[in-house]
Amino acid sequence: SFHSMQLAFCLFVSERHTMTYIETAATGWNESPELTEVIFVNGQEFVHYKSSLKKMVPKTEWIEKTVDPEYWERESKRNTHNEQAIKAHVVWLMERLNQTSGVHILQWVYGCEWNEDTEEVTGFEILGYDGRDYVAFDLKTETYIASAPQAVITKHNWDRDKTRISYKKYFLTQECVDKLKNFVNSGRKSLMKTVPPSVSLLQKSPSSPISCHATGFFPNVAEMFWRKDGEELHEDVHKGEILPNNDETFQMSVDLKLSSVKPEDWERYDCVFQFSGVNKEIVTKLDKTKIKTNTGKTEFKGRLLIFKKYIYLSSGLFCYSMYIVTCHHHSGSVNGHKN
Fold it and tell me: N or C terminus of the chain: which is more exposed, having fewer CB within 10 Å?
């Protein structure tokens, strides 16, 4: 079966590379905000920092062989400095929003993107509070954009801070990019690997849409769609989001409205999974005998709460999302719902 072929193999998915820093300060559980930082290259987590440990921890073997021993000390000191600034900002925001207690989360997302073919570089910085965008840095205009009324004062203060603006521009377009190039060149074999999915056709009932479900793939830069006679369908289909699994792989699905399919036309339809930038397709024909359904089988349902990272590499946007995943054990189907 195709599932048995789920082996990692190397492909150049894209010549665009991204390094993303995500710093999260949470207050309300402890007396002082807890800070964590995770750094990703091409969607792969490679270092992690927790304020309780006061040090950076490698998450991949290749990064330990790539950097000099002083790297860990430098990064730990940088985070100690950032920790004080972020904690102060959490306190300031709580006062400004008249919040005296409760759990509050501040997220700072920043990084850079480098196109290996064109040498084009860009950077991004987004600050979020309690799950909502707060301010974002526009590298082209070198100004901040307020995403909430409460952020206008922050925007004006940061816009006037020319030293801050100058450093942000330098970090996002030079320092970050230099680090990214070094990591890509050193860890290319690991970073450029892809893991193909296991693809199934799922249906809850005879009248329900048919879901083409792919799971276990990496990275999360992929497309999935239904075709008829080789042409992509845009009507009577519903594309789901790419969702994280709990093993650093991803899943996604695309539904086809069965009422739009004539019985005699089934063989004209197929589902296509494709990694972005790769010509190779994984094609699954619409076949009644291959559809897994809930009909007449013992059903086990469980709800699994997953707090995972979710990355759009193409846009540089990173956010933490909470997902409630409903698992149907008998059929292997998984329906993900963002909370």
Answer: N
